[in-house]
């Protein structure tokens, strides 16, 4: 078995035939074949490591479980799950620690930490690339690209764990060109618990004759923590043939253009703000077909909060746009220049360097002039880093450009007296290859959207939680006021992204639409997801505040 991770891949974990359950009875054989490996570890209150291991990237969510179980093999996961189930303990699952809501720790007595389950390699038993659920995205990118010259079209935040990212769909700056990560998901290895309370591991693939195929489908966008504990992902294109991993996944362009430009809020009129947001949307309406020559171009329009110095009254902040574009396609530089010109057409305010940090992402003044970089180097350059602020998040899919009412609501909120430079809405490119897949082929039903929005707010002082959350909720609700405060699936909007979970969606105080949170995430896929839940987690062992209902 080829080996790319920092430890040997667990050879026995993939040795069962496709679609056949792998049970914990193989644990000893797996461990014997694994060679040098880490033992399972339990961390409890009083251990110096504990405080580090009961929190993720958002310091709003700090847990107090009885134990954190650090596992690094499927056999160890089976044993930990069995022990918790037998003892009647609720289980939380942590991969990269980036969950936006308190789903991992809230009410959980045992948290499984999968961060050491990070091996990456080729599994000949299923003829697919295998990625441990604890590997972070940049571990995956580096291993796949340096060894085989291939990638998954995942996100741009380096430390996000594969476990949560892929189960929710997985998209990023290469998705217009290659699709979602789940479009390349051949199979999953999952630890599930049956009606008798017995834990076992199952390999489920997309093969038509696989008896566990529905479990595979549920993991192509059904979200993490719903059906069991994913221990690894099996990746391979639907069109791949042969046994060479270098042919299993897409090859990125050898070089990309990176460009980042901004307009200062102090120079921007309301009409010009509306022009930028409107143009960005109209461009995507015209250039998001699967065969578009712009499929290799991905824009991120960052509408940062306008601020005012309390003493000098000087206006601060920027509206910024960062673009990644395939530099190897014909007329690549002209495609990039034409895109930027279209978005800022009709805007008199001068464009300048992007000097504003936006959420997890640093300012990018070095890309005021487009730079041509090798793909991996450029991917590192755009990576989001650590962020120790408290935060909250919301999302929306867009099928059309924003309406004038939505843009006016954005402007009003972003120019309000609320004086926080760490608040924004980021409008991302979508569509193209993503939309070449049918809405029922995966559990991601949004397959004709052209943009995706991520609303973000950050602050430091816990005593200010209520103030920041009030502004943030009012902002979001005002943009979708015509549909009850949320982006109800219709001709313009198409619901929310499950990987940006938002507990407010199930609160009638904030969601006045009458459309349930499950429809906003999953649309017509939800009944099918519930059937999978009933079959593979009949005891509802794997649950959180917004999990699939049994």
Tell me what the structure shows.
Belongs to the oxygen-dependent FAD-linked oxidoreductase family. Its cofactor is FAD. This is FAD-binding protein. Keywords: FAD, Flavoprotein, Oxidoreductase. Pfam families: BBE (PF08031), FAD_binding_4 (PF01565). This protein is α+β, with helices and mostly antiparallel strands and about 550 residues long. It is built from 14 helices and 19 strands. The chain has helices at about 25-35, 50-55, 75-85, 135-150, 160-165, 175-180, 215-220, 270-285, 330-345, 375-380, 405-415, 465-480, 515-520, 525-535, and strands at about 40-45, 65-70, 90-95, 110-115, 120-125, 130, 185-195, 200-205, 230-235, 255-265, 295-305, 305-310, 315, 320-325, 350-355, 370-375, 390-400, 425-430, 450-460. Strands 10, 11, 14, 15, 16, 17, 18 and 19 form an eight-stranded antiparallel beta sheet that branches. A five-stranded antiparallel beta sheet has the order 5-6-9-7-8. Strands 1-2-4-3 form a four-stranded mixed beta sheet, with helices on one face. A hairpin with a 4-residue loop joins strand 5 (about 120-125) and strand 6 (about 130). Helix 8 crosses helix 11 and helix 11 runs antiparallel to helix 12.
């Amino acid at each position: 078995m080829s080996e790319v991770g920092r430890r040997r891949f667990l050879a026995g974990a993939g040795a069962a035939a496709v679609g056949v359950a792998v049970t914990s009875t193989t644990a000893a054989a797996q461990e014997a074949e694994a060679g040098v490996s880490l033992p399972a570890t339990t961390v409890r209150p009083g251990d110096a490591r504990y405080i580090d291991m009961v929190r993720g990237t958002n310091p709003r969510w700090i847990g107090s479980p009885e134990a954190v179980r650090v596992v690094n093999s499927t056999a160890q996961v089976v044993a930990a799950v069995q022990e918790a189930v037998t003892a009647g303990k609720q289980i939380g699952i942590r991969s990269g620690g980036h969950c936006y809501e308190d789903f991992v720790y809230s009410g959980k007595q045992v948290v499984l930490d999968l961060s050491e389950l990070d091996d990456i390699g080729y599994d000949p038993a299923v003829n697919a690339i295998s990625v441990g659920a604890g590997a972070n995205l940049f571990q995956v990118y580096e291993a796949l690209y340096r060894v085989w010259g291939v990638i998954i079209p995942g996100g741009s935040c380096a430390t996000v764990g594969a476990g949560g990212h892929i189960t929710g769909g997985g998209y990023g700056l290469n998705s217009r060109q290659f699709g979602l990560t789940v479009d390349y998901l051949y199979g999953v290895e999952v630890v599930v618990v049956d009606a008798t309370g017995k834990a076992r591991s199952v390999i489920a693939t997309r093969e038509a004759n696989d008896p566990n195929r529905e479990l595979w489908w549920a993991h192509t966008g059904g979200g993490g923590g719903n059906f069991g504990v994913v221990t690894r992902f099996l990746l391979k294109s639907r069109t791949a043939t042969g046994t060479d991993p270098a042919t299993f996944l897409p090859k990125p362009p050898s070089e990309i253009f990176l460009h980042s430009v901004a307009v200062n809020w102090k120079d921007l009129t309301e009409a010009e703000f509306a022009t930028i947001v409107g143009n960005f949307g109209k461009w995507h309406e015209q250039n998001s077909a699967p065969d578009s020559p712009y499929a290799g171009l991905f824009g991120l329009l960052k509408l940062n909060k306008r601020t005012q110095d309390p003493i000098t009254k000087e206006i601060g902040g920027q509206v910024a746009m960062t673009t990644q574009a395939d530099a190897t396609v014909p007329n690549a530089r002209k495609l990039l220049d034409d895109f930027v010109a279209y978005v800022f057409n009709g805007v008199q305010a001068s464009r300048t360097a992007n000097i504003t940090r936006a959420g997890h992402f640093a300012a990018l003044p070095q890309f005021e002039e487009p730079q041509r970089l090798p793909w991996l180097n450029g991917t590192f350059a755009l990576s989001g880093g650590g962020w120790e602020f408290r935060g909250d998040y919301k999302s929306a899919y867009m099928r059309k450009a924003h309406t004038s009412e939505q843009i006016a609501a954005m402007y009003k909120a972003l120019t309000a007296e609320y004086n926080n430079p760490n608040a924004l809405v980021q409008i991302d490119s979508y569509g193209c290859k993503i939309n070449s897949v049918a809405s029922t082929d995966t559990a991601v039903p949004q397959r004709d959207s052209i943009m995706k929005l991520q609303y973000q707010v950050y602050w430091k002082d816990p005593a200010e939680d209520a103030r920041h959350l009030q502004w943030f909720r009012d902002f979001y609700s005002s943009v979708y006021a015509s549909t009850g405060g949320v982006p109800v699936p219709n001709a313009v909007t198409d619901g929310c992204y499950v990987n940006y979970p938002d507990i407010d969606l199930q609160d009638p105080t904030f969601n006045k639409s009458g459309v349930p949170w499950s429809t906003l995430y999953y649309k017509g896929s939800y009944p099918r997801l519930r059937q999978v839940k009933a079959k593979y987690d009949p005891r509802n062992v794997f649950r959180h505040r917004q999990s699939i209902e049994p």
